């Protein structure tokens, strides 16, 4: 999100952009979150639905069901890489609550980011751009394809089998794609 805003602000000296596992529009992101949620087992969806309707998303049962969602669409690796755990432990829940909202889950945004979108302005990104995502990412291939189509000089890479952390799940595929893109940028600059 920050990179998109930065590029659209006309960042001096920006030669290229990598947009990984992101969305240009939170409404689109939420719709995709609901859509991929349908890929969960029915009993898991039922637990999520029941607690969301009752307002009990702080319950252990909801947390366990939500963890199944995260395991499939956020990071598939077990154990979860240490760097991710450190990032989660070092996060500031108050900032997250203010920015994303009180629910703290991927199915709603009622904080300050509610309504955020740069979708209609993506055509203003004037540098070569790599849009890359995992095939099972919450920021789905459909979102990534929309972004790549809207940015004039963009290419799309979908890392098969990757979730929101394809750089861990397929480091060769992800890093190879980024490396190829950066090598092409360097060659074009000469």
Automatic annotation (TrEMBL):
UniProt GO BP: acylglycerol catabolic process
Domain AB hydrolase-1: 7-174
A GO CC term attached to the entry: membrane
Gene3D superfamilies, per database record: alpha/beta hydrolase
Domain of life per record: Bacteria
Molecular function (Gene Ontology), one example: monoacylglycerol lipase activity
Database matches in Pfam families: Abhydrolase_6
Name recorded for this polypeptide: AB hydrolase-1 domain-containing protein
């Amino acid at each position: 999100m920050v990179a998109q805003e930065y590029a659209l602000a006309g960042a001096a000296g920006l030669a290229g952009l990598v947009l990984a596992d992101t969305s240009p529009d939170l409404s689109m992101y939420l719709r995709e979150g609901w859509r991929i949620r349908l890929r969960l087992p029915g009993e898991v969806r039922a637990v999520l639905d029941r607690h969301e309707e009752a307002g009990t998303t702080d319950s252990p049962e909801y947390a366990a069901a939500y963890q199944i969602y995260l395991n499939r669409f956020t990071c598939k690796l077990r154990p979860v890489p240490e760097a991710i755990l450190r990032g989660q432990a070092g996060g500031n829940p108050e900032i997250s609550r203010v920015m994303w909202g009180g629910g703290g889950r991927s199915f709603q945004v009622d904080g300050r980011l509610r309504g955020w979108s740069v979708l209609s302005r993506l055509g203003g990104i004037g540098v070569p751009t790599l849009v890359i995502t995992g095939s099972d990412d919450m920021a789905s291939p459909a979102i990534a394809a929309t972004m790549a189509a809207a940015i004039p000089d963009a290419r799309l890479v979908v890392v098969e089998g990757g979730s929101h952390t394809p750089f861990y799940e397929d480091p060769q595929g992800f890093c190879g794609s980024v490396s190829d893109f950066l090598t092409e940028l360097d060659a074009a600059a000469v």
